[in-house]
Amino acid sequence: MWYMNCSTYMNVWLLFVFLTLPLTLALKVGFYGKTCPNAETIVQQVVQQRFATDNSVTPALLRMHFHDCFVTGCDASILIDSTSTNQAEKAAGPNGSVREFDLIDQIKSKLEQSCPQTVSCADIISLSTRDAVTLSGGLRYSVPTGRRDGLISRSNDVNVPSPSFTVSQAQQAFSNKGLTLNDMVTLLGAHTVGVAHCSLFQNRLSNFQGSGAPDSTMDKSLVTKLKGICGSNPNVDPTAFLDQNTSKVFDNAYYNDIKNGKGVLQIDQELALDPISANLVTNMAVASDAQFKQNFAKAIVKMGNIQVLEGTAGEIRTNCRVFNPKKELEACDC
């Protein structure tokens, strides 16, 4: 009778599990060092060219990165175009203002010329966001790469935190993705270069929560300023800066704004008012600019690790807007 002792059986079982699992490689800085040495340089050059003509590319890419990672993970699912049989993430309401898809296309095209089927669209989002933040005055942080692109993109999956969330609601949404309250407060610091459409805060200017009056926590001069920007035409939806002083510079001025009642979005203002986050806002406001940038870099790298696909999972798209064609199995007599 064939017989194995427990130790031998366990070793064989572990070997079987190891051999049948898909290969998984941890993200690492310089992942493309050998397979595409110029990858990060190519990304940086294209982003720099766009930034030179439109510095609003920074908040646009930050928003894209956030909205991608918070759905099915950082897998570039937000880049997929809808088809007649599938409404992709782009079609979801919260993603209506996400832009710079053409910039990602430009970067991908150059990378495919240099290193075909090598650099993922998911990594392009993370790298281009880093480069845009740097160009706006932020820290040039190291981005671990090695992500692969997802195979699913559905509008019904989109459920990102709303700007009208309470701090507790937002905290739960971030916690669900493995991010702490401190991470959340730090990442919302990206609003230092952000803008918001008037429709997202219009209720705070005149009829907050059905009161018939502006939100009492908002600075009165800011209310007047925003009313002038937004106007009264319901068919027009302008944008307003979320940072009232250095709106195009990546710094910690945003935190001083919200401490002084100058938060534009409801969640921004509540960060400074809610006891669970107020101390963190104060710490960010009094921190050195360099410290804020270091904290932000650490938090966004952590966000970039949410539910990533690695190894043999997913795919490396040749076109970021569409999934790769499925390979048909060759007919055989086996």
TrEMBL record:
<feature type="signal peptide">
    <location>
        <begin position="1"/>
        <end position="26"/>
    </location>
</feature>
<keyword id="KW-0408">Iron</keyword>
<dbReference type="GO" id="GO:0042744">
    <property type="term" value="P:hydrogen peroxide catabolic process"/>
</dbReference>
<dbReference type="InterPro" id="IPR033905">
    <property type="entry name" value="Secretory_peroxidase"/>
</dbReference>
<feature type="disulfide bond">
    <location>
        <begin position="36"/>
        <end position="115"/>
    </location>
</feature>
<dbReference type="Pfam" id="PF00141">
    <property type="entry name" value="peroxidase"/>
</dbReference>
<dbReference type="GO" id="GO:0046872">
    <property type="term" value="F:metal ion binding"/>
</dbReference>
<dbReference type="InterPro" id="IPR000823">
    <property type="entry name" value="Peroxidase_pln"/>
</dbReference>
<keyword id="KW-0964">Secreted</keyword>
<feature type="binding site">
    <location>
        <position position="73"/>
    </location>
    <ligand>
        <name>Ca(2+) 1</name>
    </ligand>
</feature>
<keyword id="KW-0560">Oxidoreductase</keyword>
<feature type="disulfide bond">
    <location>
        <begin position="198"/>
        <end position="230"/>
    </location>
</feature>
<feature type="active site" description="Proton acceptor">
    <location>
        <position position="67"/>
    </location>
</feature>
<keyword id="KW-1015">Disulfide bond</keyword>
<feature type="binding site">
    <location>
        <position position="243"/>
    </location>
    <ligand>
        <name>Ca(2+) 2</name>
    </ligand>
</feature>
<keyword id="KW-0106">Calcium</keyword>
<keyword id="KW-0349">Heme</keyword>
<keyword id="KW-0376">Hydrogen peroxide</keyword>
<feature type="disulfide bond">
    <location>
        <begin position="69"/>
        <end position="74"/>
    </location>
</feature>
<dbReference type="InterPro" id="IPR002016">
    <property type="entry name" value="Haem_peroxidase"/>
</dbReference>
<dbReference type="InterPro" id="IPR010255">
    <property type="entry name" value="Haem_peroxidase_sf"/>
</dbReference>
<feature type="binding site">
    <location>
        <position position="89"/>
    </location>
    <ligand>
        <name>Ca(2+) 1</name>
    </ligand>
</feature>
<keyword id="KW-0479">Metal-binding</keyword>
<protein>
    <recommendedName>
        <fullName>Peroxidase</fullName>
        <ecNumber>1.11.1.7</ecNumber>
    </recommendedName>
</protein>
<feature type="binding site">
    <location>
        <position position="192"/>
    </location>
    <ligand>
        <name>Ca(2+) 2</name>
    </ligand>
</feature>
<comment type="similarity">
    <text>Belongs to the peroxidase family. Ascorbate peroxidase subfamily.</text>
</comment>
<feature type="binding site">
    <location>
        <position position="246"/>
    </location>
    <ligand>
        <name>Ca(2+) 2</name>
    </ligand>
</feature>
<feature type="disulfide bond">
    <location>
        <begin position="121"/>
        <end position="320"/>
    </location>
</feature>
<feature type="binding site">
    <location>
        <position position="68"/>
    </location>
    <ligand>
        <name>Ca(2+) 1</name>
    </ligand>
</feature>
<feature type="binding site">
    <location>
        <position position="161"/>
    </location>
    <ligand>
        <name>substrate</name>
    </ligand>
</feature>
<feature type="binding site">
    <location>
        <position position="71"/>
    </location>
    <ligand>
        <name>Ca(2+) 1</name>
    </ligand>
</feature>
<keyword id="KW-0575">Peroxidase</keyword>
<dbReference type="InterPro" id="IPR019794">
    <property type="entry name" value="Peroxidases_AS"/>
</dbReference>
<comment type="function">
    <text>Removal of H(2)O(2), oxidation of toxic reductants, biosynthesis and degradation of lignin, suberization, auxin catabolism, response to environmental stresses such as wounding, pathogen attack and oxidative stress. These functions might be dependent on each isozyme/isoform in each plant tissue.</text>
</comment>
<feature type="binding site">
    <location>
        <position position="251"/>
    </location>
    <ligand>
        <name>Ca(2+) 2</name>
    </ligand>
</feature>
<feature type="binding site" description="axial binding residue">
    <location>
        <position position="191"/>
    </location>
    <ligand>
        <name>heme b</name>
    </ligand>
</feature>
<feature type="binding site">
    <location>
        <position position="75"/>
    </location>
    <ligand>
        <name>Ca(2+) 1</name>
    </ligand>
</feature>
<dbReference type="GO" id="GO:0005576">
    <property type="term" value="C:extracellular region"/>
</dbReference>
<dbReference type="GO" id="GO:0020037">
    <property type="term" value="F:heme binding"/>
</dbReference>
<dbReference type="GO" id="GO:0140825">
    <property type="term" value="F:lactoperoxidase activity"/>
</dbReference>
<feature type="site" description="Transition state stabilizer">
    <location>
        <position position="63"/>
    </location>
</feature>
<dbReference type="InterPro" id="IPR019793">
    <property type="entry name" value="Peroxidases_heam-ligand_BS"/>
</dbReference>
